[in-house]
Design goal:
This protein has 15 helices and 22 strands. It is an alpha/beta fold. Bound molecules: adenosine-5'-diphosphate. Adenosine-5'-diphosphate (ADP) binds next to helix 7 and helix 8. Adenosine-5'-diphosphate binds next to helix 7 and helix 8.
Length: about 475
Amino acid sequence: MTTYQIGHFVGGEFRGEPTVARANPADAADVVALRPDGDAGVAADAVAAAVAAQSAWGRLPGPARGTVLADAAELLRQRSGEIARDLTREEGKTLAEARGEVRRAVDVLRFFGGEAWRSGGQQIPSAQPDTFVYTKREPVGVAAVITPWNFPIAIPAWKCAPALAAGNAVVLKPAEATPVSVWHLARALADAGLPPGVFNVVYGDGAVVGRALAEDARVAALSFTGSVSVGRELHDVVSKRRARVQLEMGGKNPLVVLDDADPDVAARIAAASGFALTGQACTAASRVICTPGIHDAFVDALVREAGRYRPGDGQADGVLMGPVVDAAQLATDRDYISVAAAEGGQVLTGSGEPAGLLQEPVVVTQVKPDHRVAQEEVFGPVVAVLSAGDLDEAVQVANEVPYGLAAGIVTGDLRAAHRFADTVQAGVVKVNRPTTGLDLNVPFGGVKDSSTNTFREQGSTAVDFYTWTKSVYMGVD
Ligand code: ADP
């Protein structure tokens, strides 16, 4: 297996001493990559390279920019077998999940390549005679992007592609744990002909490199996905200098299961929402709220489903759930199992000591809305089952958390589904579908502590964050 020697990507060149190793979470002997440990100096160099490259890139016709993104998509597609394998090696998710994620990055680049051909301003009738009024979208300039490890190529792609399509230059700081996927993305963009300096990558500690990008006065917009605590800190730093900031943070996503649902179907949806991706998704469902008539049958079915998600090496055939990303996350998962039990929850599965980072799926019942496992994001394969008397109480329980990212319901009752969609506090609502799994052409974002509640990501609206509107009044007499 290759051990990649990765450098920062600054001004079209790879540089920096690769010193920090990343090992495969399923196999500590498999060193996936060595990457550099950047400092504020390399972050500043990357911003300088972005500033120098941005205006020429921004002046290119949109279709020319779109063609580069589409060509990069094609290169990623051609390399997708290798990239998916590397993604599984560095992050741990199953090969099927990794293939889906790489495919998503390909489609995202294609989609925003197309947007660069299509998106523009408006022509608006002027109240003044002989005056032609139109709006244009101007790129904000240099955008910084800080990303987490759980979708190491899809999130960088869905944040950077709209920025690039709109004519911005980008400096990306990927998560410490997952250097390789972004390196593949940088190579595809460079090989597709993206001019040097338009896309830059700096590796290193968030508190050093990420913080330096947030503080840099030349960075006009910062888009972040990660924890609430870091997001809040970045919000303060970036807002203070009146630049734009977009945050996507945690979730404590509920799945409501009503009496009329088929317990097996509901359990499949709950397991796909909570155990797939090892529960390491912002949109994973970590609370299931059942009404009384289905509770027991649902719990039995969920325990059976949990048995299918035996953790294993993501590269092995038939494995539905990969390892936890690292020892720190595993310790968090284990801690919540103890906390749940101590607060009166009944831990039905997954309490046994894991082999390595292979945590079994965890089902906890008898959980009350104020228990920590019902309030706090775990980011692991831990599903808490709660009870509610009826739909209204279920929605009330669903809403009594600080987060509001995704929410789901399983029911055949159309009236109940609409009522849920209208009243649940979440940016994404799913009916009879897992809470995870989004369409790339649909706006995405949360409410409450999950998001900045301003600019949405994904879909055509993603470009809004990276552009500002100029209104032109053209007198024609
Ligand atoms: P997670 O719990 O998913 O690792 P974090 O919020 O810690 O979430 O990390 C998400 C991203 O934010 C990573 O790229 C990380 O390096 C970066 N990061 C962490 N701390 C800071 C910080 N103080 N300033 C800027 N970026 C940070």
